[in-house]
Amino acid sequence: MKHPIGTALCLAIMATAFTVPTLAADLTVIMHRATQEGTGDALGIIAIASSDAGATFTLHLHGLAPGPHGFHVHENANCGPTYLNGVRIPAGAAGGHLDPDETGTHEGPTGQGHLGDLPVVDVAADGTASQTLTAPRIKDIKVLKGHALIIHIGGDNYSDTPSLGGGGGGRFACGLIP
Asked: What is the pLDDT of residues 14-23, one digit of tens each?
């Protein structure tokens, strides 16, 4: 006994499976204020996706100080504080900038230094950041999994001079990349 409706339905499902484009494996990071005690209030989310131009970071944040802020992928998936000379450092447990090639240099998102060097975040006068930034050297967002995103207190000059890591200073916000 034939089942024409079942066969047609099965063929339609199989055809759909081969014609639907694969969606990018997006990652969503919840950003929190970095404090000496650990993580504080949630400041919004950052969605990470793959694109032909590189990894895109779409920011939907609030509660930041207006102006430019350094933005990096850090080595460890840990937003906890650490101690330096007896002082608790917010989000210090995130470690340094992601540098799998061990370049030891900070050259910004288009340079040949740390892979974790991202474009500067520009925060509006009302403390919000709603923008999409592209990191052209990050071709596969899977390399970001198991690390942390950090937004620094100050800007970033994409150089290790006069200050290491671009001069962004302390860590203001942190989020874990799942």
From this structure: 343 333 333 4
